[in-house]
Design brief:
This protein is mostly helical. The protein has eleven helices and no strands.
């Protein structure tokens, strides 16, 4: 089977290609540092490929975007927080592999939707709370790490959890982006074998599709870098929360 035949095997319509390209564009923007739009990407790809299959389509693209972010923001990473979160994220990933392996597509979809909606509620609450206290307890970092690991395995949905944590410990913008870049690069590499050999959601065919999307990813990443230097709009954050919540509701009831 040649490359063209592989792509044709997905039976993608023009609308599907538009949605996939848009999701890839948002991914590059997101990994450049504009946080909060990851759930839109997950919902878009789930619309085209289904909930579980879309996790395997997305993961190699995430790793590609992580590499860009690690190279660009490397000097800003705070390894103290990476070491706090990473062990618990690994535990969360392993639990996610076990739970997500045998459940039905319908239940998988509802689990992803619930995670999305709960994450949005937590983000809204954390935005409204405006506390000056920086949480330092091991329990807080352990719970955040576990939930981030579990949600990233189940549906690449760790963004809201990690955002809440990094906002709570008040990392400066570039340190926030650099720390998240390294953390998710490491954990996404850790997830690869499970998608290849356990869930079987990454195949030669899905990698061929990923390769077509890489140019969009690269262009959008550097567009995002330029935007990050300018952005400081509270209404933008509110907009993302609303769109994210709607995405969760659509996934839950469609």
């Amino acid at each position: 089977m040649n490359y063209t035949e592989i792509l044709a095997s997905f039976n993608l319509s023009i609308l599907h290609w538009v949605v996939i390209s848009f999701a890839t564009f948002l991914l590059g923007i997101s990994k450049s540092g504009i946080k909060g739009i990851g759930i839109i990407i997950v919902v878009a790809l789930a619309f085209v490929f289904g909930e579980k299959a879309s996790t395997g389509i997305l993961l190699p693209l995430l790793i590609g975007a992580d590499i860009c972010a690690v190279i660009y923001y490397n000097r800003h990473a705070n390894w103290t927080y990476i070491f706090k979160l990473l062990p618990w994220m690994i535990v969360g990933v392993l639990i996610g592999v076990w739970i997500g392996h045998d459940i039905s597509e319908g239940l998988f979809k509802k689990l992803m939707a619930i995670i999305i909606i709960v994450s949005v509620i937590i983000m809204v609450y954390s935005e409204q709370r405006k506390s000056d206290t920086i949480p330092k307890s091991k329990l807080f970092s352990s719970v955040a790490g576990f939930l981030a690991g579990f949600t990233t395995m189940i549906g690449n949905l760790a963004g809201p959890i990690s955002n809440i944590y990094f906002l709570a410990v008040r990392l400066p913008k570039n340190e926030f982006i650099g720390t998240a870049a390294w953390l998710f690069f490491i954990i996404n590499i850790f997830k690869l074998p499970f998608h290849f050999f356990v869930w079987k959601t990454i195949t030669v065919e899905t990698l061929a599709l990923n390769a077509v999307l890489v140019p969009i990813l690269l262009v959008s990443f550097f567009i995002g870098v330029a935007i990050v230097k300018l952005i400081s709009n509270v209404n933008y954050r509110r907009f993302i929360l609303v769109v994210t919540a709607l995405g969760g509701l659509i996934m839950l009831f469609r």
